[in-house]
Amino acid sequence: MRRVLPPDYLTPIKVDGRIAVCEGASEGVGLGHPIEYICLDLEAPNVCKYCGLRYVQVHHH
């Protein structure tokens, strides 16, 4: 049985734009999941509903 970590344990992936695209496949392993477009307008990281990866927007000032 695979053990899945809660999303809080994952380091958020930093994204330059307002939208992150998650396919779920990591380093070419596995088939992934349907493409999920994630809006990053909020300050807090947003989570992919399929795989739990977290994304956060990098704000350049």
From TrEMBL:
InterPro entries noted in UniProt: Znf_CHCC
Domain of life: Eukaryota
A Pfam short name: zf-CHCC
Domain Zinc finger CHCC-type: start-end pairs: 17-55
Keywords: Ubiquinone
Protein name in the entry: NADH dehydrogenase [ubiquinone] iron-sulfur protein 6 mitochondrial
Naturally occurring in which organism (per UniProt): Zea mays
